[in-house]
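Field log, afternoon session.

UNIT: design team B
ACTIVITY: writing a sequence onto a fixed backbone
BACKBONE:
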């Protein structure tokens, strides 16, 4: 009998050794141990448990190459104070490698079951909340998945989320919307409805999405619904948080990715990006530099001026981060970001002319430049996290539109938006542990935006009335979660904001300047934003939640003809309920679903004034019903099928007097007035991802998706009531190679559809119904990526 058990034990040990030495392809970005271990477990088809909660948030290095799982784990956790132990043939356990006298301090730290994988952490919660306890809809997309296939910027995120939408004026000028919270189509004085962040630093205030290229990104997190408690003004619909890879203090390494593309009916294009990580002081200081250049071939022809492919766009940019390890878990990061977008002409076409053509008299186009400098100091201790950060932003956008009459001389309209932003925040947080976690902090924002306009012959533009808006906002906030019962989490928080608003008209006619003095005086606004959520595990790995939160935007000054006038702050209150189900292993079904009702008061939105130019007004109160769902099924390792949808029904239930007067001059205009703009009533997506080995040393990945965008309207009111949307976008990509080098071929817009992403060409032709923004025609890209 004893001999028999010795043979069994020997066989089990041999099986474990074989499994431990099985060579697999590994590509794990830098991040927290929880995120990286979960990625490694999926790629190696093993189960990895992290035994102590303090380890979940430890930062680990990127890991790429072909290696055995035991070697991969050893390299991944190097320098974290942890050790990995094999439990059985396909299970591993990571625990703290500390002296016995120190282990007693961790006796109360929760442990995961040995069969469980490391939790997914929502870092955008500002206290590293496990997704299983997060009372809301959060989507986390890994950096390698975002970059696969060559899509860059927000287009890569739009292709993956049904709940995210955008205007399509052009890169660096678009406005993002989440769920049904959408205001306007133009770059104006209103603050964005979606907060955008690079790591913890705000990218914009009342300027459009800078559309930074997503090279060398660890992950992107999207939180849906108002996020006013933690993120303050400008997060009515949610937030998008981009997490770049951090400098590796120990290793010299680099990466590059590039490709060439051919667009049907248009010009060829190309893209190139590269990263270099260089330790300066071993284990103490390193710098990580990213640079890129992209040329997107044009595909719109101007038949009046006999010009082909006029809408080429060029993007050049990069970022750099210097990290200094001060010891005792203290880090300092000094960073910089720069990107220039140069659009040779606008990308709209005339639906009454042959496909992908228009007839314009004057050159359009745009320039969108973005700069950010940042400083972050943080301490990621076992019990408390401290972080202080500050950033200075300069964003400049120049837009040019053809303003020529149908018959007459050439005229050009130019609008310039010059934004200067300073943001600073200090916070202390205790990550969720033993069912309790909290965060408390304060922030300060100073923003100045000058909007100037001119109109006339291209070589003799005459200034029009412009406006400068200034905002100084100081806030205090806090949020805490606790679990009175096993499986039940209660979260509550609040934010208090004090904003000082001021501004004045620019190039105002002298006769009107005195009348505007009272309007442009300084004023103050105060906001209190409460929030609460309840989440409960009603079944194993199935959670239900109920969430209430608010968001707001301060008021400001807007232009209407030669006048400058005020618009008021607006506020969104959202009550939602939903569920989330996660599989127990590397295969199975994960599911999220939610339904939400939002009340939006004093909606800030655009309309067209008597001069044919966009202006901003409070157009009334609205209500929005939204529902969304997403399912991901892994029937076997290496194969993933996903489906998602979003439904939005937004209406203005109490229009302002100005909006009623604007609609009175039109018949059958009621739907154009009631509908919230720019968000499709229905959006749906389906995708498939397949990964397998080819021979002994090559990996194959195939990914394909289709995304349907339903009908929406370009703006509020009869003039901006044109229908857009109702198109199907598609793509397929194949990569073959090793983790360190590979070749990709991809095709977008497989059906070569024209579609209509945005029903506006120039504001001077709004209401004519002739202009569309077509999809990029079928494009084939051949790419190469490599790492060292």
């Amino acid at each position: 009998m004893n001999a028999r058990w010795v043979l069994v034990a020997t066989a089990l040990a041999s099986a474990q050794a074989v499994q431990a030495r099985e060579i697999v392809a590994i590509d794990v970005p830098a991040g927290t141990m929880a995120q990286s271990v979960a990625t490694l477990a999926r790629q190696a088809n093993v189960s990895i448990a992290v035994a102590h909660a303090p380890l979940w948030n430890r930062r680990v290095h990127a890991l790429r190459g072909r290696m055995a799982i035991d070697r991969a784990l050893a390299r991944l956790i190097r320098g974290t104070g942890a050790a990995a132990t094999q439990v059985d043939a396909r299970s591993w356990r990571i625990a703290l490698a500390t002296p016995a006298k120190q282990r007693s301090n961790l006796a109360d730290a929760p442990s995961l079951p040995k069969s469980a994988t490391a939790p997914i952490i929502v870092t955008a919660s500002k206290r590293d909340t496990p997704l299983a306890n997060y009372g809301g809809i959060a989507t986390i997309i890994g950096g390698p998945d975002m970059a696969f296939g060559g899509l860059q910027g927000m287009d890569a995120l739009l292709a993956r989320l049904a709940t995210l939408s955008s205007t399509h004026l052009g890169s660096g000028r678009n406005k993002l919307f989440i769920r049904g919270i959408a205001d306007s189509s133009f770059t104006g004085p209103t603050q964005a409805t979606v907060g955008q962040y690079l790591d913890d630093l705000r990218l914009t205030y009342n300027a459009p999405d800078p559309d930074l290229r997503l090279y060398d990104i660890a992950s992107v997190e999207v939180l849906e619904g108002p996020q006013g408690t933690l993120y303050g003004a400008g997060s009515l619909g949610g937030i998008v948080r981009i997490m770049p890879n951090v400098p590796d203090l120990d290793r010299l390494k680099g990466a590059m990715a590039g490709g060439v593309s051919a667009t049907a009916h248009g010009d060829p294009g190309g893209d190139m990006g590269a990263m270099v990580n260089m330790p300066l002081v071993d284990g103490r200081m390193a710098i990580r530099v990213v640079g890129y250049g992209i040329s997107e071939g044009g595909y719109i022809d101007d038949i009046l001026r006999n010009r082909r492919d006029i809408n080429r766009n060029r993007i050049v940019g990069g970022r750099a981060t210097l990290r200094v390890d001060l010891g005792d878990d203290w880090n300092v990061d000094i960073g910089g970001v720069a990107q220039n977008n140069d659009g040779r002409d606008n990308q709209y076409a005339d639906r009454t002319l042959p496909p992908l053509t228009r007839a314009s008299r004057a050159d359009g186009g745009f320039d969108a430049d973005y700069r950010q400098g940042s400083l972050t100091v943080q301490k990621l201790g076992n019990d408390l996290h401290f972080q202080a950060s500050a950033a200075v932003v300069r964003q400049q956008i120049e837009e040019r539109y053809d303003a020529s009459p149908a018959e007459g001389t050439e005229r050009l309209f130019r609008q310039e938006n010059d934004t200067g932003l300073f943001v600073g925040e200090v916070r202390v947080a205790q990550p969720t542990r033993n069912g309790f976690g909290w965060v408390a902090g304060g922030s300060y924002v100073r923003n100045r935006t000058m909007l100037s306009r001119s109109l006339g012959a291209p070589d003799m533009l005459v200034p029009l009335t412009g406006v400068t808006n200034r905002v100084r906002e100081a806030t205090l906030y806090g949020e805490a979660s606790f679990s009175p019962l096993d499986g039940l989490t209660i979260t509550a928080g609040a934010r208090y904001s004090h904003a000082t608003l001021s501004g004045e008209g620019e190039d105002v006619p002298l006769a009107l300047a005195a009348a505007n003095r009272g309007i442009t005086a300084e004023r103050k606004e105060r906001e209190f934003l409460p929030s609460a959520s309840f989440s409960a595990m009603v079944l194993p790995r199935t959670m239900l939640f109920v969430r209430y939160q608010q968001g707001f935007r301060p008021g400001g000054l807007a232009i209407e003809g030669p006048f400058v006038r005020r618009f008021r702050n607006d506020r969104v209150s959202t009550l939602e309920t939903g569920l989330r189900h996660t599989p127990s292993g590397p295969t199975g079904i994960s599911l999220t679903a939610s339904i939400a009702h939002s009340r939006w008061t004093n909606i800030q939105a655009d309309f067209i004034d008597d001069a044919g130019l966009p202006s901003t007004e409070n157009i009334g109160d609205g209500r929005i019903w939204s529902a969304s769902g997403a399912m991901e099924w892994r029937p076997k390792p290496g194969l993933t099928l996903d489906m998602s949808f979003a439904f939005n029904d937004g209406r203005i239930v109490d229009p302002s007097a100005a909006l009623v007067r604007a609609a009175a001059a039109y018949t059958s205009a009621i739907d154009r007035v009631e509908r919230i703009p720019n968000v499709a009533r229905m959006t749906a997506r389906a995708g498939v991802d397949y990964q397998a080995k080819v021979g002994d040393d090559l990996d194959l990945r195939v990914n394909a998706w289709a995304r349907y965008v339903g009908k929406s309207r370009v703006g509020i009111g009869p003039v901006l009531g044109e229908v857009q949307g109702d198109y199907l976008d598609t793509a397929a990509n194949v990569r073959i190679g090793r983790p360190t080098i590979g070749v990709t071929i991809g095709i977008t817009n497989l059906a070569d559809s024209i579609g209509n992403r945005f029903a506006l060409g120039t504001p001077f032709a709004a209401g004519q119904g002739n202009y569309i923004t077509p999809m990029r025609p079928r494009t084939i890209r051949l790419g190469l990526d490599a790492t060292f």
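LOG NOTE: The chain has ten helices and 46 strands.
NEXT ACTIVITY: expression trials, pending approval
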